[in-house]
UniProtKB/TrEMBL annotation:
Residues 489-516 are annotated as: Disordered. GO terms for cellular component: cell cortex; cellular bud neck; septin cytoskeleton. Residues 506-516 have a biased composition (Acidic residues). This is Septin-type G domain-containing protein. InterPro entries: G_SEPTIN_dom, P-loop_NTPase, Septin. GO terms for molecular function: GTP binding. It is found in: Bud neck.
């Protein structure tokens, strides 16, 4: 580059993702200084207005200073050098180049279908792409998540579609927190993509961030348009992904019933504060989608070829057929326009914006945890390398543990265990109270029996005392002469002729016999 042909003016030096960038305005003035662009250590192309510096700028170059000469370069305001000319340099071909790049590169679209088994999720995807997608070979008895990737080509435009099916969703006897598997999957894809973007080689990153979730309302009735499972699931999903509720198997309702059911579903969505396409930034697009929500769709089971080579999707019955792409029959065509024809890029860009919010929150929390952990362990051992190594090894499991504790499933299980623990405590306290009451009643009965026994004992003691006094009085009374002879005569009789008498060996035995 000749320094008498071009002059370059630096407008800003900023730090962008670890690299220094310089905005360069190339004019047709001569460089008044002594150094040219090639004499600097910066990688700046003469055909571009943006250069990248692989190393930090010299300390003698002040940043963000206007109107100063630095080694022959003059800093000017970029807005003051905006030119418009009738001479065509090819800027009008930039959209065409961009379109060609997008055509060659193709696109990626990740769609999740959620709903009970038999609600028509697979049939809907087959109808959406006019093909036969085998998402899973056999029905699953337990809830899991199935991913299948397909590559579609239409007029040289490549589209890689990832279909995320949820067989077994809501089919268990206990459906509490079954929606947490969907929520965790969406959050894990954000976290996985974040970790992949932190790696040195990011060209082959596996991006499965969900751009849209179609939730199938298969059991909607006029009396109960949304079940408790539908309400809780859509509430949590709408916080993380663009949610689109649809009424599947709309051929089960009459036209009047279907219109009334749509109205009741809209009222329930508003009442339960469920967001539809929450992250779409274009208000007009969002308003248009909300006006058609929920879409009433019918799955096709037959494809009919037309004379012009095109085909239409039908659902045949013994008494007739339905063209699912006919807007007067169902809302399938309108839903396909929302997903593919009109708003696919809007859904992808809104997911990207939502990801950046997640990324900022995640990195902020990780930084705060790291600072707290380092401050705690290195406060007294800042120069101890062994302690730093221990902190490094402990930081990862600690961060993982704190991440697990922040999940909704962990909090729900914690609350469930807390309720169970409180219930067990109340049950044990109730049992202890019953035992105490029974023991108190038993103690009262025993105390009453003891009092009765004590009363009987006192009564017997009084009788014994009275009898002892009478006996003592009898022994101390003088016996007359006749009574003495009679007693002597009784004593002289032989034992065989005597009347039966008690043999009293002692005074105690006598009293015992008297008592008996």
């Amino acid at each position: 580059m000749s320094k008498d042909i071009f002059s370059s003016t630096f407008t800003d030096v900023i730090d962008h993702e670890g690299q220094w960038e310089l905005n360069v305005n190339i004019g047709k003035e001569c460089i008044q200084g002594g150094n040219s662009l090639n004499s600097q250590s910066y990688d700046i192309s003469s055909t571009s207005t943006l250069g990248t510096i692989e190393q930090e700028p010299p300390e003698d170059i002040p940043l963000h200073v206007d109107g100063l000469n630095m080694n022959g370069f003059q800093i000017v305001d970029m807005a003051a050098n905006t030119y418009s000319s009738n001479y065509k340099v090819g800027l009008q071909y930039l959209p065409t180049q961009r379109e060609e790049m997008a055509r060659v590169k193709g696109g990626k679209f990740n769609i999740m279908v959620a709903g009970r088994q038999g609600s028509g999720k697979t049939t809907f995807l087959n109808s959406l792409f006019k093909t036969n997608l085998q998402l899973h070979t056999s029905p699953k008895q337990t809830f899991n998540i199935c991913l299948k990737k397909y590559n579609f080509v239409e007029e040289s435009v490549n589209l890689e579609v990832t279909c995320i099916d949820t067989p077994g969703f809501g089919d268990s006897l206990d459906n509490r927190y079954c929606w947490m598997h969907l929520v965790n999957f969406i959050d894990n894809q954000f976290e996985s993509y974040l970790h992949q973007m932190e790696q040195p080689h990011r060209m082959k990153a596996n991006d499965i961030r969900v751009h849209c979730c179609i939730y199938f309302l298969s059991n909607a009735t006029l009396n109960s348009p949304l079940s408790p499972l539908d309400i809780e699931s859509m509430k949590e999903l709408s916080k993380r992904v663009n949610l689109l509720p649809v009424i599947s198997k709309a051929d089960l309702y009459t036209e009047d019933e279907l219109n009334l059911l749509k109205q009741k579903v809209r009222e329930s969505i508003i009442k339960e504060e469920i967001s539809v396409c929450e992250f779409v930034e274009d208000h007009l697009v969002k308003k248009c989608i909300l006006s058609m929500t929920p879409h009433a769709i019918i799955g096709a089971n037959h494809e009919k070829k037309l004379p012009d080579g095109d085909s239409i999707l039908l659902r045949k019955y013994p008494w007739g057929q339905i063209e699912i792409e006919n807007k007067s029959h169902c809302d399938f065509a309108a839903l396909r326009d929302v997903l593919i024809s009109q708003n696919m890029l809007e859904l992808i860009q809104s997911t990207e914006a939502n990801y950046y919010l997640f990324r900022a929150s995640y990195l902020t929390k990780r930084f705060e945890r790291a600072v707290s952990l380092l401050t705690k362990f290195l406060k007294k051992h800042s120069d101890n390398g062994l302690v730093q190594f221990v902190v490094y090894n402990q930081s990862k499991p600690t961060a993982i543990g704190e991440t697990v504790e922040e999940t909704d499933l962990f909090k729900a299980q914690q609350l469930e265990l807390q309720r169970k623990f409180n219930s067990d405590i109340q049950l044990q306290e109730s049992r202890f109270k019953d035992w105490k009451r029974q023991l108190t009643e038993r103690q009262s009965v025993l105390n009453s029996d003891l009092e009765n026994c004590h009363f009987q004992l006192m009564k017997l003691q009084q009788q014994v005392k009275r009898m002892e006094e009478e006996n003592e009085l009898a022994y101390n009374t003088p016996v007359s002469k006749g009574a003495g002879l009679i007693l002597a005569g009784f004593s002289e009789r032989p034992p065989s002729s005597r009347s039966p008498q008690l043999s009293v060996s002692s005074e105690d035995d006598y009293y015992d016999n008297e008592m008996s």
